Amino acid sequence: MKFQFLKNSLSSALVVTALSLMGGMATTAQAQADKPAAATGKTELLWLGQAGFRIQSPGGKTIVIDPWITGGPKAPAAFKADLSALGKVDVLLVTHAHVDHLGDAPALAKLNNTVLYGPADMVTSLITLGLLPANLGHRFNKTGNVKPLPGIKVTAVAAEHSSLIVYNNPASGKAESHPAGEAMGYIIEMENGFKIWHMGDTGLFGDMKFIFDRYKPDLVLIPIGGNFTMDPEDAAYAMKNWIPAKMVMPIHYNSNPLTKGTLAEFVEAMKGSKSQIVPMTEGQTLAF
Known about the structure:
Blueprint: H1 12-21, H2 29-34, E1 44-49, E2 52-56, E3 62-65, H3 77-81, E4 91-93, H4 99-102, H5 105-112, E5 116-119, H6 120-128, E6 137-140, E7 145-149, E8 152-158, E9 164-169, E10 174-179, E11 184-189, E12 195-198, H7 207-215, E13 219-223, H8 232-241, E14 247-251, H9 263-269, E15 276-277, E16 285-287
Parallel strand pairs: 3-4, 4-5, 5-6, 12-13, 13-14, 14-15
Antiparallel strand pairs: 1-2, 1-16, 2-3, 7-8, 8-11, 9-10, 11-12
Helix pairs in contact: 8-9
């Protein structure tokens, strides 16, 4: 599948138009909510806002990662009103414990009786705090991998970021901060071999080159918002110097006033790169 490289300033309206022209691949969140997972032979990504995605695998399985939905300002309304509208979640991934990533993951794990896979010390804290049943948590760490379903493999990779659980203690009525291990990214491999690198939240680090060389992802989901993560210039530096992936999708922007990086700035900084920029708007779906 070939995407056009978008140049110069892009408004939200232009992004929507561009997606609509890509073979009708962009769909509304409500339409996707009503559509059961099916084996399509393609990988379909629905952007839930910030770093959250619902991924339909080529074999018809549903992977949800970093689901900040009920509290996410850009999450699709259909899902904010009813988490079950996501459909059956087969694989649940969280990159780290900050609220805009952990979000509704414990609720989705319990709703679907689905294991939450995440950084070892984050999962331990969720269990010991009573936020997640022990049987619904799987602990793993960087370079560790899991095969939660036949044909699907998830490898944990490094991210340069922090991780903390803020827990509202019902006994005291006060918010508490609890350690939650280290942030991670994931290489998610589908049944047909298509690989996605979800970076989670991260700043620049030299081993991005190693990760690309070792796992060779087809699509990179890269944060560009700045302040907590790379900004557009740093994200473009990583792509142009270390990560010559076929496609890159900017994420983790447009949801927080502190993360001011924009798609237009990323497109400008990416000039000269051979990677194709795949823009999305929250609530839309693309197939690969």
